[in-house]
Each structure stands twice: as structure tokens, then as C-alpha cells.
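input
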Amino acid sequence: MYTIALCDDEVKELDQIEAFLESYQDGKQELAYRTERFASAEELLQRVKEDGYMPDILLLDIFMSGKTGIEAAEELRKLGMCMPIVFLTTSREHALEAYEVDAIQYLVKPLAEERFFHAMDSAIGQLRRMEESQVIIKVAGGMRQIQIDDIVYCESQKNYQIFYMKEEEYRVRMTAAKLWELLERFPQFGRCGRSYILNMNHINSVEREEIVMYNNRTIYIPRNKAAEFKKEYFAYYFDNRE
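output
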């Protein structure tokens, strides 16, 4: 089920958006969603920062008392949040700023149902593409949406998992079993003993009892797991070689 956040300082506008969403769902019975309403950008940002709230789609007014929708979107992007954003506004003057925060649609009020439906089609389409290439993890400071291709490997350290990325590292409190549940649907990941999950696209070489990764880190293979992992790796390599 998707979570759609609605942020507008006018109740009648929130009511209309929810009515449009109900009509939109009538033609897409497979779509399950729930909405959460916010009367200001500050209320939305507080929920994100304090509770780790991360909606799947954000429908955001621009002109509100206090922070504008553009300012809220800028803060959300700085926090690493990549959800599709649709701006709803009474003026075209902020279209360029909307583009700069990667909004997928910019709708001018009064809203037209047809244009709203098109915006939702774009948002759902982007969301489904993101689901195929990203995972969400909880880190210090909030939630992060990370690209699967940026994960080099993960290391288990008791109740924490270390994500070694191309450019940075994340230390996440979760079990190794939970992490594998998150990653096993992506064919490029393979388990190497109990401690490591490796992105096989980032393996430089596989030796007798060690693996050299993209970042030049060497992973030592448990002797009783070496043959099993090598078989998995070479099967993946030959199946995916161009």
C-alpha cells in the first residue's frame, strides 16, 4: 500500500485532492493507498524529522503561510528523500524552481481532473521504477533511499549492518536476516558466509579464498563456503555478461 502525503493550508483544497484521488482509484482497482494530510510545510517537515515519516508520493502546495512548498521540497531532498513530488499552485512563476527539486509535475489551480490523473500516472510510474532500483534504510538523522547499484557490499556486525557504498558508509541497526530479506530480490546480491552480502557487479576478482571488491577491499571467504559462493558468482557472471 502506498502512502500519499497531501500538504496544503486550505482544507477545501485538501478535500478536493482526496476526491480526485478517489476518482483516480476507481479506474485502477489494483492501486491501494492511504493519505495523510498536512496543513503546513512545517508540520510535514516535523513529522519527517521526528518520526522518520517517508511518504511514497507528495502532493504539495507552493504558496502556504510559513515555509513555501519549494522550501519544503528543498529540505526533503537534502535529507535524501527521493519520492515523486507533484506541485499544486495558483501561479506558473515557480516552475523553474520546481524543476530544480526534481518535481515530476507542476499543476496550476484550479485543478483539472484529467491533468491530475496524468500527474498521478507519472508519479506511480516513477515510484514503480524506483522500487526496482532502490531500497529504504533507517540511518541516524532519518530515512535514506539508496540506489542498489551504489551498494558495494554489506557487513554484519552483531545487530548492525554496515552498508559500504561507492562514496560513503551507513551503519544500520537491523539483523542480517532482515537485510537479506531486503536485498535477496535483486539477483546481483550474493551471501558470503554469515557476515557478508556482496554486490556481484562490484567484484573485481575471485581468488582461492578471497574476493577483491570494487573499492579494493578484500573479503575473505570462509573455507567451507568458498566453493558455494564461487559457483553462485560465476553463474551470475556468465548469465549477465554482455
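quick obs: The domain at 2-132 is CATH 3.40.50.2300 (Rossmann fold).
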